[in-house]
């Protein structure tokens, strides 16, 4: 099975319990990470949320800043869950982040949370983000990282590889999706490589900031 189909079907299976699982498995830190992401983007209009899932990041942006958010994801079950809870001011599109259905230079801001590592072609996804940004627009990307602290890193790897799939199975009935989480984090490029790819597609002076000891990384880039 190709990665795109595997990811789509996997998220479809866990969609109903996805938000609960995220909150419990991250010990509630997922809300803080989303807050940091939308604050890094700032008030912009229009804004696009890519790999929007159950619309949690879109809803956080709406709470903070108010403007309408365009939210795109290729998993219809995830979007349906989000639509049952979060609809005001969020315009939902079922589509692929590698082939965005928008004209060049449409948005002043593009944001993405935990979606970049799921893309079949990371560089193409970054290129699409860049393409739909207006000149002077900003992109922010929240993604999992790998802590470097010699005391914390082994404990985090143990949690990801052993405990997280087991807890994920109890919460969603699907251990495969959470085993994939570990595998995808391990296979994801380094911060330096992501920044290099951002520069290659055109982003101006992209930056990367560790959150929670490096459990997450917040990438930022501007379109000149």
List keywords for this structure.
about 50% helix, Rossmann fold, 7 strands, globular, seven-stranded mixed sheet
Describe the structure concisely.
With 224 residues, the protein is of the alpha/beta class. 49% of the residues lie in helices and 21% in strands.
Describe what you observe in this structure:
It is a single chain. The protein is α/β, with parallel strands linked by helices. It has a single domain, classed as Vaccinia Virus protein VP39 (Rossmann fold, 3-Layer(aba) Sandwich). The protein has helices at residues 3-14, 18-25, 29-41, 56-65, 76-85, 122-132, 152-172, 175-187, 191-201, and strands spanning 47-50, 69-73, 90-94, 107-113, 133-144, 204-211, 216-222. Helix 2 (18-25) runs antiparallel to helix 7, helix 3 crosses helix 4 and helix 7 (152-172) packs antiparallel against helix 8. The longest helix is centred in the C-terminal third of the chain and has 21 residues, at 152-172.
Total of domains: 1
Approximate helicity band: 40-55%
Given as residue ranges, the uncertain stretches (5+ residues, pLDDT < 50) are none
Q: Assembly type of the shown chains? A: single chain
How many DSSP H or I helices?
Answer: 9
Total strands: the figure is 7
- Structural class by SSE content: alpha/beta
CATH architecture: 3-Layer(aba) Sandwich
Gap between N and C termini: 39 Å
